[in-house]
Write a structure and sequence with these properties.
This protein is of the alpha+beta class and 262 residues long. The chain is built from 5 helices and 14 strands. It has helices spanning 2-18, 84-98, 165-174, 183-219, 226-234; strands at residues 22-26, 29-33, 42-45, 49-50, 54-64, 67-81, 100-110, 113-122, 132-139, 143-144, 151-161, 176-179, 252-254, 257-259. A hairpin with a 2-residue loop joins strand 13 and strand 14 (257-259). It is globular. The chain starts with a helix and ends with a strand.
Length: 262
């Protein structure tokens, strides 16, 4: 009888351990999830990847080089098109370029938000991960836009998983992303303060230059060809504006592997 009770107790403890939720942080975000598996795994926060339009915070959940999940949280500086249909097309195209084909897509609620999941098969072109890739996409703050039949948001979450389907399903059913840190906000505030100070200094310098130019014009004798000079001043030649295209993100090493920011 005691043996039966002990066995039942061990089974209960084992089930509780498997069902236990886990948490991790990446940048100012806290991610909670439950893989609902007895597979061992490690968590590793990747370095923040800032660009001109956004900052991305990666999180790795890894069992081995073929069985892992990468979570990308991208925080945009301004509202961005979050229309699901647009991102379904873009993500499937990106997977083809990476070497994952025969993809199928299905709508799914993730973290209480509207999202979708793509399942794709690995080809020899792909160099990492297992044979089947699950990629889920959703926005934490997507909302309708008055600009037309589209939605906009500022925080995008991509979950790439090479775990088996049941483990991936548990991950997507339990994941919750919440911004709990304030470091990014503080840094932004400091940068804005510095920018404002820089603008004020530039304004003062401009005022000084204008005053100096006015003083010089008063000291100069009147010119005979004032009409021609006035015409030249009123039609200044502008230097051509050059637009620099963003460079391709460089791979970053995390968990003994290299990944490219999404």
């Amino acid at each position: 009888m005691k043996l039966i009770i002990a066995t039942a107790l061990l089974l209960m403890l084992s089930t509780a351990a498997i069902a236990a939720a886990d948490t991790a942080t990446t940048g100012p975000y806290t991610v909670s999830f439950n893989l609902n598996t007895n597979m061992n795994y490690v968590k590793e926060e990747g370095p923040a990847y800032p660009t001109e339009i956004a900052t991305q915070y990666p999180l790795l959940i890894k069992t081995n080089n073929d069985t892992y999940s990468m979570i990308y949280i991208t925080e945009y500086n301004n509202f961005t098109d979050s229309t699901p249909m647009v991102h379904k097309v873009l993500n499937r195209l990106n997977l083809i370029f990476e070497g994952y084909t025969n993809s199928t897509v299905a709508d799914r609620t993730i973290d209480g938000k509207e999202g979708f999941v793509i399942m794709a098969l690995k080809t020899p072109q792909a160099t990492q991960g297992g044979d089947v890739l699950y990629q889920a996409v959703y926005w934490t703050d997507s909302k309708n836009c008055d600009c037309g039949p589209v939605t906009v948001g500022m925080t995008n979450v991509i979950v790439r998983s090479f775990y088996p389907q049941d483990v991936t399903d548990s991950l997507l059913s339990s994941i919750h992303v919440e911004k709990t840190g304030t470091a990014a906000t503080t840094a932004t505030g400091q940068q804005m303060g510095q920018a404002t100070t820089g603008q004020a200094t530039a304004g003062q310098q401009a005022g000084q230059v204008t005053t100096s130019m006015t003083q010089q014009s008063q000291d100069m004798p009147p010119a005979d060809n004032s009409g021609q000079a006035s015409s030249q001043i009123s039609s200044p030649q502008q230097a051509p504006v050059q637009t620099q295209m963003p460079s391709t993100p460089a791979p970053i090493k995390l968990g003994g592997m290299q990944y490219t920011p999404q």
